[in-house]
Design a protein that fits this description.
- With 82 residues, the protein is mainly α.
- The radius of gyration is 22 Å and the shape is elongated.
- The chain starts with 6 loop residues before the first helix and ends with a helix.
- The model has no long low-confidence stretch (mean pLDDT 94).
């Protein structure tokens, strides 16, 4: 794949490589794309959560905290047993 980047983006990427932040321009671009992929995944998860809320599928904070505390108690009990 060949990319034609705007000059300000190209200069930025070259600067990152010159500073030693990345070993190559390709590595810098790959990192940027990975960040973009993560952002898009997060958007999808947020959208999924919004749909669940709209459908009435949610837990109140008391239920969540009770489940978290039970899990903590379970982990602590396992640690004391070992």
């Amino acid at each position: 794949m060949n990319l034609n980047l705007p000059s300000e983006v190209n200069d930025f990427v070259k600067g990152l490589v010159a500073e030693g932040r990345f070993t190559s321009e390709e590595d810098a671009i790959v990192e940027g794309v990975k960040l973009l992929m993560g952002r898009e995944q997060l958007r999808g998860e947020i959208q999924k959560g919004i749909k669940q809320l709209d459908a009435g599928e949610f837990y109140d904070e008391e239920t969540v905290f009770n489940e978290v505390e039970a899990e903590i108690d379970k982990v602590e009990a396992e640690q004391q047993g070992s």
